Amino acid sequence: MPQFHNVTIEDKEWIKEIFKNYKRLACEYSFGNIFSYTAKFPILVAESHECFISKCLIGDEIMYCFPLGEGDRKAALDFIIEDALKSGKKSTLFAVNEENKDFLVREYGDRFEITLDRDGMDYVYNTEDLINLKGKKYQPKRNHISFFEKTYRWTYETMNSENVFDCVRMSENWLYQSAHEDKTDLEDELQIIKKVAENFDALEYKGGIIRIDDEVIAYAMGEELTEDSFCVHFEKAYPGIRGAYPIINREFVKNELSSYTYINREDDVGSENLRKAKLSYYPAFLIEEYEAELK
Questions:
Q1: SS3 content of the chain, % helix, strand, coil (to 5)
Q2: Has residue 292 got a pLDDT over 80?
Q3: Which secondary-structure segment (H or E) carries 222?
Q4: What is the 8-class DSSP label of residue 121?
Q5: CATH superfamily ID and name for 5-121
Q6: Which candidate, 28, 32, 46, 108, places its Cα nearest to that of 74?
Q7: Looking only at Cα atoms, what is the longest distance across the chain?
Q8: CA-to-CA distance for 122 and 274, rounded, in angstroms?
């Protein structure tokens, strides 16, 4: 019988092996993402019938990641349903794509209430578009970059297990300077970033840093999803520096990620400003996702 357990760095091998054999571009299926978010949520994982499954208690609701793998998905889902019913809590499957939505309907009829999760849809871009920024539609980005390059004495450097802690300090400053009264989400994000920094090499992250006069003013980092796709989990820049976001976006992809075909820049979590920013880079496509609540 499968058993859920707290995810640790030792789970990386078997989880990444499953992810490697099942091609998917969604950010939920990346070990570094799962591991780092244990700094915020109590995430449990298990291998059920040769499939990866996870669960997380958020408030009074249990969120289960849809089983991924080449094993028996029906058996893995039956295990999840049994576990959910035992808990007595509201239980929802997330990261359900179109194919898996159809699978749920076919196998379970109306037992799940399925809704489109627009806020959770990942934005995926052609790598060449983010590097070259060609055409009229990218003119505003090129203008911001041009201003930045002419105005500041800046440098780019590849992130490693040492200079990543400079990025942690930049994130701390960014938090303290934030005008938001409720900084809970920002404080949680900082703890997640710290967890990544402490395990940077083990997680096989890649990152890039922009400095002005040796001070970190922007950085980006993430991990490989598949052989041809990379997921950018974090991108931060001081908002008062014009061009900081466009320059780290371009330089990171150009210097570290040019061998990938696609760049996944995750979802917009329902933020209107974030959605506008992500759309301004003209994604090649969005990964359609659903949530399925167990009735």
A1: 40, 30, 30
A2: yes
A3: strand 215-226
A4: P
A5: Gcn5-related N-acetyltransferase (GNAT) (3.40.630.30)
A6: 108
A7: 62
A8: 12
